[in-house]
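Bit of a strange request maybe. I'm writing a small parser for structure token strings and I need a real example to test against, not something I typed by hand. Could someone generate the tokens for this chain?
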Amino acid sequence: MAKGYELELVHLTKRYGETVAVHDLNHSFAPGSYVCLLGPSGCGKSSTLRMIAGHEDVSDGSIVLDGQDVSWMTPAQRGTAMMFQSYALFPHLSVRDNVAFSLRMKGVDKDTRHKRANELLDLVDMTHLADRLPTQLSGGQQQRVALARALITEPKVLLLDEPLSALDPFLRIRMRAELKKLQRELGITFIHVTHGQDEALALADEIVVMNNAVIEQAGPARDVWAAPRTEFVARFIGGHNVIALDGGKATVRADAVTLAAEGMPATVTAVEYQGASVAVTTRTDGGDEVLALLPEDQFFASPKSPGEAVRLNWDEGRLHRLQA
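Reply from user aminoacidic:
Good idea to test on real output. This should exercise your parser:
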């Protein structure tokens, strides 16, 4: 499998008439990394992915893969492969023939393409179902076939557009682990579009947070989670409270907030039991909503109800000032 190819976006822009879907993106993707493009619907993440794949034209700027500008190339020429949200399998072809389809289009003989398809079905644990039709498969099985089909072209970069959104929550978590394992084994760059921050945190070496057609913040998953640069990133990545402080704004993680005898006065507005922890939502006298995520035993030692006055406390070292 191909390894160590760098992908770079240079002043990449996409316009649909008057609407700017992607605005002047500049970003380098480290070779062999798992990258998640994260953001709300309409932020430009799918348009970015489709431009990299060659399924959308570039309005301005370029896409450079392995030192070569691929912006003008057809999807088949550029060394990327895309796995679609819908899986888009051919209903009349067997699993094996679905996987081998692109090789058939290139004129590869039947024995060779079937041998290669079998190797990839083995990789995704689907050999035993090679002769079935897509309609005879579960969602998770169809997804594996789509993955094998995308990988048969030996892409330099694999592009995944919300690949887990059609699966039930239990299977989604299992497939997450499998995607990560597969990416490690293949050593190629995966770029995965999602609007789920849990998914991005679980999978990504690097998270690229998009909002309103631009990149708000990019970096290792842990950095983006622990040190959001903007209020948007803090709120979107979740688990953070944004509070007004000395004319600026700061964040404090929900798991760093405690209820104590001293501290910021607030009123409990909601209590939600979450198993290992209890989520206590409060409103400060200044009007900020602050969430405290308390260990279950700590909460029940001194339970609180909506309407009760409390005081919020946190270690000053856990306070993170926002840049913008």
